[in-house]
Design brief:
Distance between the termini of chain A: 63 Å
Shape of chain A: globular
Number of helices of chain A: 9
Largest interface: A-B, 90 and 90 residues
Strand content of chain A: 15-25%
Oligomer: homodimer
Chain lengths: 233, 233
Amino acid sequence: MDSKLPTTYPLPTIRRLPHYLRYMRGLQRRGLVAVPGTTVARYLNIDSTQVRKDLACIGLAGKPRIGFDLAESIDVIEDFLGWGNTSDVFLVGTGNLGRALISFDGFSDRGVQIIAAFDSDGIQPGTRYKSVPVYPVSKCADLVSRLKVSIAFLCVPAPEAQKTAAMLGAAGITAIWNFTPVKLDVSDSIIVEDVNMCSSLALLTSRLTSNNNSGERRNGDNQRNETELVAAV
Amino acid sequence: MDSKLPTTYPLPTIRRLPHYLRYMRGLQRRGLVAVPGTTVARYLNIDSTQVRKDLACIGLAGKPRIGFDLAESIDVIEDFLGWGNTSDVFLVGTGNLGRALISFDGFSDRGVQIIAAFDSDGIQPGTRYKSVPVYPVSKCADLVSRLKVSIAFLCVPAPEAQKTAAMLGAAGITAIWNFTPVKLDVSDSIIVEDVNMCSSLALLTSRLTSNNNSGERRNGDNQRNETELVAAV
DNA sequence: TAGATTGTTAATCGATTAACAATC
DNA sequence: TAGATTGTTAATCGATTAACAATC
């Protein structure tokens, strides 16, 4: 309670915590009560010092020859991440990705719950998708302030991203999980976390492109593949 | 052609390239022919030296007072990323996320095309989803080798991720875009790129949790919100 | 005890930022 | 020309890894 926990944490550490949590939850389910940082490190293919440092950083201590207590570690990580209890969130944009997120059942383990969705299409008030009510975007700002919702998942088409984000900011949203590829221009007080799927894809495809210098390309002949595919099955 | 391009590139640089590309494509569409690195930097909220370094790194040079030629830059970035022409990919797992990816129309701009999808449920051969044929997973290995497909998008439920990845590796897939939260254990020769949505969510929620030390939580009272919501609209 | 694992300090590595002369 | 922008070198910053004594 008193000790020297930092007031700001390394982003890479925060990114790794969900992996520790997932692994530890799995071990706990299998009946274990503790795990050495060295084992966690081996599983995740990282240095064991890293694991110990990350856990120390949020206040966890291990025991030589035994490791880290699972129940305690899981608790502390969940608390640190804010996954210990549930925050209500609004989801804006019920396209394919938005609906996939509504259908995802892992959010309850991660401290969030989608309580309403919004779409610009003329959906009737009262419609539900997988038990989540869907309203016209025009009702969003009002509901944000009335229900004091602070988190929004943004899944609208790219051309609408900026204006929707501005609306959410004005309505009082304090954090946006941004699934659009748009760099949002909002007040500094609003936390924006980008889900950079394109950056991730870039990492994949650039590694495939031989050593990134050759003019070579693979598999450009996709018309042929479509034909073959139909014949092949 | 001869000059000192590195043989390995900083990951942060590769991650930024899609952002440069997107911005530059937008400017080009609006009729511009060049953009200063300083302008790109201001737009993306990063240091301008970074932009120049990143672009220099893949072989681009700018002109003082003018900046970087858009057509050339777009071309070089696309080529570097392997987005210049199209690779065929298989998608495994046609749950909500898988279907969202099939429906996403941005892949053609990013060098990939989903030519078939696979699912373990007993889907009839011949079924299509948004014009993409869907087959039983049992046919996947055979088709990978016959069509020489090298990329797979993995969107199966977590419990099936590891065994599906193993199957893909054995079938000859060389790169897996992994949407599951599972740390895949596959041959080192296979490129795995994780889409870490959970890490991203962690970054968001941990920043919301005051300064990460207090026991405070916001908005735990979601039962009340559900009731209010129904009444509110 | 022996030895696996811990926490911590120091060394290394790599990326970002600052400084500035060269350019058009 | 003047001055915005470039490319490049040096300084800073932050994260990872190595080393090792302390612990149970």
